[in-house]
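To: structure subgroup
Subject: Chain for Friday's discussion

All,

I'm putting the inputs and outputs inline so they're searchable in the archive.
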Amino acid sequence: FWKLTTFSKTYTKSFFNQIHSMSDLPKLVIVGDGGVGKTSIITRYIKDTFTQGYEPTLEDNYTTKIKVSDTETLEVEIADTAGQEDYKPLRDKYIVEGELFFVVYSIIDARSLQMAENLLEQIKALKEGDPFKFILIGNKCDLTEQRSVPQIDGQNLADKFGGKFYETSALTKQNIDEVFKTIGQLYLEKNSKSETGGCCNIA
């Protein structure tokens, strides 16, 4: 798959538009700080499994069908991105290609919420005014005794950028199905408005 050597440089949207994904499926990009549970959210939904421990991800790609309703599914390509800033050019490539986003932080790590806000700013800048749909996810909500990020802080951040907000647990599967169902609904809603000539805003 596409691989990039780490180095420091600023890229523009036009540069990344020259690099195309091999798939024409809608692209769901998962971003967030290292260790917040991005991969665990994906594997819990796709495979219904959970693995303890943390192994940093460079980049992984998945294809899955999201159950949007009892009668409708949406097939998507999922890009699981690295949390480390060393791999920012690779993450930026996926952001430019992406149409849907999970921006993930950990409720037990206040720094990861700041990283989530930084990532939302980066997405907004890289999309250059193009509409995008996102869900802000506060993961590890089963660790209530270790919570350092109040739920209202996550909600306020999602509201600031016009997105949806959920707290999840990949361990217990709390709200895992719901976040995928919601992002699928947001995509279908966006496309429905486009086809009817309506205006698509961040929602």
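Points worth raising on Friday:
The first strand starts at residue 27 and ends at 32.
The radius of gyration is 16 Å.

D.
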